[in-house]
């Protein structure tokens, strides 16, 4: 199972962490893992490249772990763009969790 943890500070998403493999299918054919990875990694690319935020982005593919944390020193535009991107990510992960709750756990703190 993959646990996705979303941390909010003052109502805004500050970080997202994914930990573990979904276990839905065999490695390389796991559609739930592929869907989750696509949602999260596309959002991370949006934060880093489109919004231009120097976020702390770490990944460990063997463990199935990824963490993205926004910095405190963003411009107003970067903060807005990041919030839009991360709220869209949350919608996608929520939908995936609702469909595959045995394989994707979602925690919003």
Structure description:
The protein is α+β, with helices and mostly antiparallel strands and 109 residues long. It has one domain: 2-Layer Sandwich (Alpha-Beta Plaits), CATH 3.30.70.1490. Strands 3-4-2-1-5 form a 5-stranded mixed beta sheet, with helices on one face. The protein is globular and about 40 Å long. The mean pLDDT is 96.
CATH class: Alpha Beta
Query: What is the average of the pLDDT values?
Result: 96
- Number of helices, where a helix is a run of at least 4 consecutive DSSP H or I residues: 2
**Could you give me the name of the CATH homologous superfamily?**
Cysteine protease Prp
Helix content: 40-55%
Q: Could you say what the CATH architecture is?
A: 2-Layer Sandwich
Low-confidence stretches: none
Percent range for β-strand residues: 25-35%
What Rg is obtained from the alpha carbons, in whole angstroms?
Answer: 14 Å
Please count the beta strands (DSSP E, at least 2 residues each): 5
- SSE string, helices as H and strands as E: EEHEEHE
Please provide a brief summary of the model:
The protein is α+β, with helices and mostly antiparallel strands and 109 residues long. Helix content is 40%, strand content 28%. The protein has one domain: Cysteine protease Prp (Alpha-Beta Plaits).
Task: Note the topology.
Blueprint: E1 2-9, E2 12-19, H1 31-50, E3 56-60, E4 65-69, H2 76-99, E5 104-108
Parallel strand pairs: 1-5
Antiparallel strand pairs: 1-2, 2-4, 3-4
Helix pairs in contact: 1-2
